[in-house]
Design a protein that fits this description.
- With 121 residues, the protein is mainly alpha-helical.
- Helix content is 48%, strand content 7%.
- It has a 3-stranded parallel β-sheet.
- Helix 3 (58-68) links the parallel strand 2 (46-48) and strand 3.
- The protein is globular.
- The mean pLDDT is 88.
Length: 121
């Protein structure tokens, strides 16, 4: 429909998140980190439809943890339908202006400092 664009992966995806009304994505690690950064800067709401199989639950576990923290909405792929996706987007948009407690997104430098302190101390 007019106003809706679906595209393959783009190198400027992180920048696009800062200006979109709502992100609808799968829940890979890099995508989730980009979504959290966009939430921190521009409060971009997000719906994650995690890729999942009987042997692959990583995206589902990550998405469920973020949903429990109120940072995203999760829509399991088995429940995916136009109506369910529209409802999840509506819920995410309502959530947009909530005061959020985002995780520290500088885990790499913090871990390096922690390890350096332990090695030196």
């Amino acid at each position: 429909p007019e106003g809706i664009v679906a595209e393959a992966a783009r190198p400027d995806f992180p920048q696009m998140l800062f200006n979109c009304a709502c992100s609808v994505s799968q829940g890979g690690y890099n995508t989730v980190m980009d979504i959290l950064q966009a939430r921190a800067v521009s409060q971009t709401p997000a719906v994650i439809v995690p890729f999942a199989t009987a042997r692959e639950q990583e995206q589902t576990l990550r998405a469920q943890a973020l949903a429990r923290a109120g940072l995203i909405r999760v829509l399991p792929e088995k429940n995916l339908s136009p109506a369910a996706l529209a409802a999840a987007i509506d819920e995410a948009l309502v959530q947009k202006n909530l005061q959020l407690h985002l995780p520290d997104l500088n885990g790499g430098p913090a871990t390096a400092r922690f390890l350096q302190e332990k090695l030196n101390g």
